[in-house]
Amino acid sequence: MADPTAGPTPRRDHGEQEPLRLLAVHAHPDDESSKGAATTARYAAEGVEVLVATCTGGERGDILNPSFGTGPADVEGMRALRREEMAAAARALGVRQQWLGFVDSGLPEGDPLPPLPDGCFGLVPLEEAAAPLVELVREFRPHVMTTYDPSGGYPHPDHVMCHRVAFEAFHAAGDPDRYRREGGAAPWAPLKLYYNHDFSMNRIRTLHEAMQGAGLESPFGDWVESRSAREIPERQVTTRVPVARYYAQRDAALIAHASQIDPDGFFFAIPRDLEVDVWPFEEYELAESRVPVDLPEDDLFAGVREHVGTSGSAA
Known about the structure:
The protein is of the alpha/beta class.
């Protein structure tokens, strides 16, 4: 059995048919399981080559699962733990995964806000931070990329930098005059770029109201009623991918991140049958497309399948 964390698939010989390819770019281990996870599981099951690129090792994460017990006492120990968890999550989703090698920035809090730690991902100059992802895009040759919107989805410095790096790689990987490296892979221009919308207020309100309608206590009450939530702008949704059949794989991937995810906590507070009834899809915003599109969509590869044809390589 192939190692799901082994990185890009080797290039096939010219003329040999290739599957479609999807690259999901995330900030930390566990983000791939909480954002777009059922989508990646679905496409992997359908024969699409799916690769998760993880920007940082999650070294500065805390133990967030109260039932986990005492975690590693040092950064190296946390990095090793989170690598083990990531490998288990990749197996649960049926995808492969590649580390980009940057160090978690943590989430500094306070007033005034303390500076980010030296050497962390959030402080790396953009071209230096994007270089390994550009090379990965050229090696893996994805037709579609997914990542976060410019806000990062929430204001974690690594999520914001993840967006910047993925946006840069989408635009630069196909340009032979940029990020040139001796012996590097040939330029490759992905065809579509999407932003994940898993934590949109529309989704949260819908699930909240469904819980209330079923006479159940919603975990989203404080969130929905808070002033800050009401002020979150709703971004455009262009694409809803039906994925209810893959919620079990998503949940297994979440549980694989045992140091971070409480199986009795927030992510599992909504009964799955209720979620399937009211929210059987994952939402995306099509940020850019190099192929004609007809919105709204229900497939990240809409327009790509016709453009690529049976060869699997961009025309």
